[in-house]
Inverse folding.
């Protein structure tokens, strides 16, 4: 049995989230709100009723309200991602849900394939998973600036920004977990700040600061932080001096397999060759076979 990697210190993550809740900074949940709104729009396009649904991970209340407005849902429950001796676990009974949703929680799990497999088992046939998680482009400017400053002043850099999910891997992870009709796409949001320090305040208010297990126990010194802010401005500022911060939102969806779902054609079963279809379309368009 493969050992689950320990990428994130989830105990520290819980403490950071509690601190963020106590801060209650107005507007600090803008990223969660944006992701929840996007998920709600996707759910509304499905146009069906879900008798039993679950929110996987934290919710400020926005996601539950968004779901209620997007689709008719019977029972809705909240399920925490719990830490166990062999990895994260979800307190979900097999085949107990028609819908599972998650916003900005799955990027913090150490065993994403395992959590996706648990969600798949909890879905009834033709049940739906919709989730949004932070993608690999998230905070790329911050990663670049802090790494450069720490390398310059310490002669080496430790990981400070999490290795978020790559969209190119998500479809494969969904298939590996047993989902049918997997879809993954991405949306990039660029937020402008007065400085690196303003961005850092927002990250603290989100409970999204460094919780990597391999983090350097030494805090950034004032000199390194100041140099990182200088590099950030040099490399990632607009003409007005404000700096850019990229947030990539990766949206994924997958269905629990069911006989009613469309099936791909078997190789070699097509009724027409691709070359013949292209030639026919060209003749129809121009009347003379030219494109």
């Amino acid at each position: 049995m493969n050992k689950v990697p320990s990428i994130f210190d989830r105990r520290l993550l819980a403490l950071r989230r509690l601190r963020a809740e106590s801060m209650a900074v107005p507007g600090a949940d803008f990223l969660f709100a944006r992701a929840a709104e996007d998920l709600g729009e996707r759910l509304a396009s499905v146009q069906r009723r879900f008798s039993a649904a679950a929110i996987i991970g934290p919710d400020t209340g926005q996601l539950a309200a968004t779901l209620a407005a997007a689709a008719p849902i019977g029972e809705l429950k909240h399920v925490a991602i719990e830490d166990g001796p062999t990895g994260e676990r979800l307190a979900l009974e097999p085949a107990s849900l028609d819908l599972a949703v998650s916003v900005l929680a799955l990027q913090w799990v150490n065993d994403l394939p395992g959590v996706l497999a648990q969600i798949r088992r909890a879905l009834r046939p033709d049940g739906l998973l919709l989730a949004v998680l932070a993608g690999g482009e998230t905070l790329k400017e911050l990663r670049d600036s802090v790494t450069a400053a720490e390398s310059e002043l310490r002669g080496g850099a430790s990981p400070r920004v999490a290795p978020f999910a790559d969209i190119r891997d998500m479809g494969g992870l969904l298939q590996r977990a047993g989902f049918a009709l997997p879809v993954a796409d991405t949306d990039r949001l660029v937020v402008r700040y007065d400085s690196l320090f303003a961005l850092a305040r927002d990250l603290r208010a989100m409970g999204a600061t460094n919780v990597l297990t391999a983090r350097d126990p030494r805090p950034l010194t004032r000199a390194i932080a100041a140099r990182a802010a200088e590099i950030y401005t040099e490399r990632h500022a607009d003409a007005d001096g404000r700096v850019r911060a990229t947030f990539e939102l990766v949206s994924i969806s997958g269905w629990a397999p069911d006989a009613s779902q469309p099936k791909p054609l078997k190789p070699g079963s097509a009724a027409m060759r691709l070359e013949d279809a292209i030639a026919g379309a060209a003749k129809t368009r121009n009347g003379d076979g030219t494109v």
